[in-house]
Amino acid sequence: MAAAYLYLRQPERAAQLYEQLIQRSYLREDAGIRRNQDHGLLFAYADQGAVGTAQQLAPVLAQHYAPWRYVEGDAQKIPNAPYLDAIHTSTLMDLYANATPNAQHRLEHMVRTAPANNNLRTDLAQLYRIRGWPRLAEQELKIAEAALHAHTAWKWNRA
Could you tell me the domains of the chain? Predict the structure, then answer.
């Protein structure tokens, strides 16, 4: 219901519902639902112009996600996708709040850490474009496009 209000461009009502869901811990044990509630609240704040509130709340919400997950019977740790989503969203809130140097630093670090993640690359390209660096933006988009084509070719070869 809260997401519907966000879609209908009623972020104030969406924020109220998300706050109630989070306060009541409604289905928060499910990581996917928790992530949707957290991100929905942040974007509801941003859409109603409370970008500073979203920027301050984003790192707090990101702390609720472990950076790594472990599969039973396997000693190797695996990157936790909800954690990456949370810090990525936190970085976007910095960008929306015009803290572009901080957002740039964080996105560049994430791209170095996860170079095959095209969502991070395209957001970094967008940030470069916003900062007035079209050539850097184009370079990032070309890398993302090449990775997408390589991934698609790999999938076709496996079929």
Answer: 1-98 (1.25.40), 100-158 (no CATH)
